[in-house]
Structure formats: C-alpha cells, structure tokens
Queue: 2 jobs
Job 1
Amino acid sequence: DGGITQSPKYLFRKEGQNVTLSCEQNLNHDAMYWYRQDPGQGLRLIYYSQIVNDFQKGDIAEGYSVSREKKESFPLTVTSAQKNPTAFYLCASGPVGSSYEQYFGPGTRLTVT
Amino acid sequence: GENVEQHPSTLSVQEGDSAVIKCTYSDSASNYFPWYKQELGKRPQLIIDIRSNVGEKKDQRIAVTLNKTAKHFSLHITETQPEDSAVYFCAESGTYKYIFGTGTRLKVLA
C-alpha cells in the first residue's frame, strides 16, 4: 500500500468552494476507488474506475466528480453541491481479474467551514 | 439492497483472550470476503481475506471462517495483544465493488 499516495493529508476550505483531492498509484493497478468515511462509521463508495477513461458512480456520488485520464491517477473533486463535505476521504486501488483486493492510500481529511 | 451486518460494534477483551467478529451478507453472488484493520487516523490495512471456495483460512493468530449457506463469515483473533486494538471492517464483493460492514472497535485491555 506504500504505492498509493494521497495529497494533501489535511485540507481546509470555505463553504461554496470546489476542491480537488489527489490520488496516485504506482502499483500498475487497473481499478481505483474513492470512499468517504465519517467519524465512527464505515466506508461508503463514491466513485470507482476499472479502466482509463471510464468510471462509475458508487452509492454516494452526488456532489462529487472524478476523472481517469491516466492509469496512475484518479482525482476526486468535491463540489459546492455536496451538502456535508467534511469527512475523511480514502482512495484505493486494486488489480482487475480473478482477485479483487483493494489497497488504501493514507487518506485526506477535508474540513469545510 | 446489498448490505453487510457486522457485530458487535464494540468489543473489549483481556490481553491473551480471543476475539470474534461476525458479519452477515445478503448477496448470494458474493465470492470474496476481506477483513481490514484501521488504526485511529490511518488507512485501512488488509489483514486477511477468504474466497467462496474455501471454508477457513488462517494466518498466525488471525483466522477467517466462511459459511456460504448461512451467508456469514467471521474473524477470529487468538492470544490478543494491545497492538490488536483498532477498528476492524469486514467487506463482501462479487465484482470490483465492495460492500463494507460498519466496523467493530476492538479494545485489548492489558
């Protein structure tokens, strides 16, 4: 999992601003994922991508957008339309095929005031 | 819809005792069941996983059992140590998409 990086570790924004979270991996994984984690709760899937230039909505995609222009990169934009954006955001990647392991990045803690 | 129920939500054990966490899933097509450990403020770490063609898998003090008929799987930690204290998440998957349980906070008391 050391091959997945997220930046920055902490991010502060004012309400009404869009913000983009970075996720990069050098594990040659085809699949990448974005999750949101709220305090004391589990992980909820925002978006996922199985291949470059293709991605699918997860369970809570409203107010978020993604792109997958390169295999190594899967940035997440939290838009002003997301009503409760303050959370811990985790990116993951994994192989495609017979195994479905997912390996997580260190996370970005976003605070919107 | 698809969901995973995880119990208990919190678990306290004495150091050296065993801990068991159970998950129940609903999607009969699920065939991959990973367990993650997450320490405070850190990333979830994959600690063990099991596939549907296997009933039990063990890795040192950690084991996972799967009952496909009943649609439940369990994490067993033996000889618990203080460093086992963390939040543990189960998940189930039939494809690339995971459904996670809500987590169990394990406290190992010294």
Job 2
Amino acid sequence: GAGVSQSPSNKVTEKGKDVELRCDPISGHTALYWYRQSLGQGLEFLIYFQGNSAPDKSGLPSDRFSAERTGGSVSTLTIQRTQQEDSAVYLCASSSRGPPPYEQYFGPGTRLTVT
Amino acid sequence: RKEVEQDPGPFNVPEGATVAFNCTYSNSASQSFFWYRQDCRKEPKLLMSVYSSGNEDGRFTAQLNRASQYISLLIRDSKLSDSATYLCVVILNTNAGKSTFGDGTTLTVKP
C-alpha cells in the first residue's frame, strides 16, 4: 500500500516568509509525528498527534512553529517568519494505534532552505 | 545527559566482519525499542524491533538489556550495502508515542 507522503520535497524560501509543509500518513494510522533533522545531526522531535487527542507539542522550538491535523489524517506544519536556522529536513512519520510496539514509518521528508 | 545515547562512530570495518552497536537510555519506564537504518540524504527505515528475548533477522540480531538500560544491534558477515547510519529509538508506551531517537552510529563497510 501507499506509504507516508510529504510535499513539497524541496522548499527554498526567503528569511521572514511563512512556509507550510504537508504530510499524508499511511491510511488507517492514527499517530503522526513531525521531526526535524539538520545536516549531520540526529532527529529532533517536534510534535505528535494521536487520534483526536490534544497533540504533544513539547518539541516545538518556538512559537513560530505550529501544526495541525485535519480529520485525523493529513497534517500541516507551519513555520512563520522563517529564520536561517530553520533550514533542515522536516520528516513526518506515522504509526498505528496499537498494540505495541508502535513502529513508525517515515515519509521522504521536505528539505527546507531559508536564504 | 541525553535521554538516548549512541556512540557516533564512525565504525569502519572490512566486508565479512561482525560489528556491534550499543544504545543506552535513561528512562527505566521505557517500553518499546527499535533500530532504524538511515542512508545518506534519505529517510530512516525500520530495521527491527527489539525485545528482551532478543530478535534475529538474518544477519542482524537485536537485544534489550533492561537491567543495564541498553539495546544492542549485532551485524554478522557485514556487506558493503550495510554502510549507513543506524539509529536507536526508545518509546514510552504510557504516552503511546513520544519517541526519542539517538543521534545515530555511522557504519562504513569496506571491501
């Protein structure tokens, strides 16, 4: 079946502009994650959605970052007033509700470059 | 101290060698553990889950040691195609999701 898809695959934007990144999870997966990976670094957790529960936003680095998930499926990560340090690959993953062990499946990522 | 720690390497080994990676975690309540593989400029891909009883898949063996709070990955008879970064992941099931990745261990297998 179809895997996790993300769009756009690449995004170049000017400092100060807003960007929206989209994630389509695997059909039927109730959990959705956003991560950020800077060049040569590990994955940084940003936000987690589980069904209709309130999202875990504990990883969002600043109030310029927000995310929503409509209808328990597609998710959008929005970065307002982008800064050069926001340049990274943004990865989305989804997993089923359970039972454990909650394997996550990743999309190909969106490579964001802020000039 | 990081919640999940890995030796970043790099590990440079010849073809056919056996190589082992460890990953330590700080929260003793953690319940789910995985190894992922990430190739350069690609997304992480699930390699295998890790259980206390051990998990073997071909040349790969994963093990969990709860008492010492670490997980391991053993690769036998390594191939050139095993060259990648290996990430460990720890999940607190009570949150049913919040997951912490290690920074990864880089493996290069040479002819």
